[in-house]
Amino acid sequence: MTRARLTYCWCLALSVAACSSTEAESEPAAPAEQAESGASAKVTPEKSEADNKGRYTTSSETEELADPEAALAAIPERMRPVELLPDLKKKLLVPDLDKQGIAMFSDIVTIEPGQDVTFCTYVSGVTDKTLYIHDTLGSQTHHGHHAILQYTTSPTEPGTRLCDPESLEAQQGQVLGGTGGEGNGAIRVPANVVSEVPAGSQFIINHHWINTSDKPVQAQAEMITIPPDSEDDLIIARAFVATTVGFKIPAKQTGEASVTCTMKRDVKLLSMIGHQHSWGVHVKAERLGAEGEVLFDHDYDEAMISHPKTRDFSLEAPLEIKAGDSLKMSCQWNNTTDQMLTFPREMCVFFGWQIGASADTQCLDGNWVD
């Protein structure tokens, strides 16, 4: 499996915490030539073979605004979308302009009944300097499963299209954060921990939709960046992912799978989650070696798809897995469908934020992906 396919996998696992945003009168120095969606045409994909109607339900965690017009006016015009769905306008997020926060929007897409589909919106413009992002915050219209903010150092044509897991952009896309289930996630890191976006990068909004209704729906997502309070003493965080994709859960049966990854270097983790989809019933992660430890071990339900249980550590005492030791991630499922469950309809993913690494780290079925 390519790095691109794995990137798609751990995008679905990631649901990063909400931070409060504030309105400001001044506009930020432009970090990109433009920060708006590059196309206004509505996009209608082919219907997915997997009919997930009724399998996922989501509830909005982003409260509707008392004055949506005021919120829209607080967003600089160059950051506004060409078109804005009324449902998204009701829960707009306003970036902190004083701290150089950015608002970005996907184009409007059409999701067919029962469809489970993921789009990538390539935002217009590139960053003109290195940016440091502490967190992200997102909002989606109804039927949203997740919205993830990524970047690529190989800019491509702006616009919204089906995510191509084999594309060069996807292979190089780096995850900055995101939101799940039309609301906000659960991973939090210390105030001076950030992601680093190099100059010349293009932002990508990865947005996943599952239409559980019997009619086509229009959908749209927004992401804003949360810069750090100060750029002094910043610590760069990278993603750490361990996953297995070879499992098969027969129809109307239970099943389990695991992945064990042996560290090539010391890994220091600040936060971690286990991720499954609708048929997941249990997740467990263990550190194996001289200092063995159960990292988490808990039942799983659909609410945790978007709002996972997390385990967090301090900068002074991160969870350390030594070179030569291993991480084992185990999952259990109850397949109530009439079909075999395989990746990516179901998943078994360990996701964490790590410090001291020079790049994101990915382990697939026990093998490290460069």
Break the fold down into its secondary structure elements and pairings:
Blueprint: H1 3-13, H2 68-74, H3 86-89, E1 103-105, E2 109-111, E3 116-122, E4 131-133, E5 135-140, E6 144-152, E7 159-162, H4 168-172, E8 174-180, E9 193-197, E10 202-210, E11 217-219, E12 221-226, E13 235-243, E14 254-262, E15 267-275, E16 280-288, E17 293-299, H5 303-306, E18 311-312, E19 319-321, E20 326-334, E21 349-355, E22 361-364, E23 367-369
Parallel strand pairs: 9-13, 13-22
Antiparallel strand pairs: 1-12, 2-11, 3-7, 3-10, 4-9, 5-12, 6-8, 6-10, 13-21, 14-20, 15-18, 15-19, 15-21, 16-17, 16-20, 22-23
CATH 2nd-level architecture of the largest domain: Sandwich
Uncertain parts: 1-42, 44-61, 168-172, 181-186
User: Oligomeric form of this entry?
Assistant: single chain
Q: What string gives the helices and strands in order? A: HHHEEEEEEEHEEEEEEEEEEHEEEEEE
Helix/sheet category: mainly beta
CATH homologous superfamily identity of the largest domain: Copper type II, ascorbate-dependent monooxygenase, N-terminal domain
The fraction of residues in strands falls at 35-45%
CATH class of the largest domain: Mainly Beta
Count of the separate structural domains? 2
CATH topology of the largest domain: Jelly Rolls
How many E strands? 23
Shape: globular
Number of helices: 5
